[in-house]
Design goal:
Elements: E1 21-30, E2 33-42, H1 48-66, E3 69-70, H2 75-78, H3 84-87, E4 126-129, E5 132-135, E6 139-142, E7 145-151, E8 158-163, H4 181-204, H5 208-217
Antiparallel strand pairs: 1-2, 3-8, 4-7, 5-6, 7-8
Helix pairs in contact: 4-5
């Protein structure tokens, strides 16, 4: 049979280099949940525009992840928070901002998400948050996390998100001058949580090289 379009072949494979960006859309099925995590990296010297575009995608990811919103709000009414940092400079992305994720079920699970036909968000739902930016023929950026909808610490019954993906972002692509103090506080808090939860597990498995990488990439 012909090879799958998703399978590597001598005709389509390329050698990795430090001169371009790479988008990794990863995931797995586990008995206690399904993961769908995308990270974008650059191992060399990104251009100023690549850094700005990446940083603005990250800003949108953070802004939506931190959002406090009314109970039973539809995802479509809040998804623009993931786009605002891109819209500020006339950029956008042409796909949905996120989709429901099943528990050892479908990776893309309707009816949760941020489209117009999705149900209102409620505590206990899992959704992805995945803004991006794509420059045709040059590079693509997407930052995708899995988030749990939880009750916010407010007097009235409002909701927010708790990001459950514990993977650092690429420091090489972040322009700190674009981030607000609140966004930097969020990143530092997120990195503290990654260290606290993932670090001991890597040590338990005696993965010292991986533990060193984690410490380096979760510096404040």
């Amino acid at each position: 049979p012909p090879p799958s379009p998703c399978s590597p072949s001598n005709g389509s494979s390329r050698t990795l280099s430090a001169r371009e960006m790479y988008l990794f859309d990863t995931g797995g099925q586990y008995l206690d949940g399904t993961t769908d995590i995308t990270r974008t990296v650059h191992w060399g010297e990104p251009t100023p525009f690549q850094k700005e575009a990446y940083t603005r995608v990250l800003m949108g990811n953070i802004d939506l992840s931190c959002l406090i919103f009314p109970s039973n709000a539809a995802g479509r009414t809040v998804e623009s928070f993931a786009r605002r940092a891109l819209w500020d400079v006339g950029l956008n992305y042409g796909h949905g901002t996120g989709h429901g994720i099943g528990n050892f079920l479908s990776v893309h699970e309707w009816p949760v998400g941020f489209q117009s036909n999705n149900v209102p968000l409620g505590a206990g739902m899992f959704t992805s948050i995945e803004p991006g930016y794509y420059q045709d023929g040059e590079f693509g950026i997407r930052i995708e996390d899995v988030a749990l909808v939880v009750k916010a610490q407010t007097e009235e019954p409002f909701l927010t998100f708790e990001v459950v993906s514990l993977v650092p972002y690429d420091r090489n692509l972040i322009d700190l001058s674009l981030l607000s103090p609140q966004q930097i506080r969020y990143l530092n808090s997120y990195y503290e949580r990654i260290r606290a939860l993932v670090g001991p597990e890597l040590r338990r498995q005696r993965l010292e090289e991986e533990y060193g990488w984690l410490q380096e990439n979760t510096e404040p």
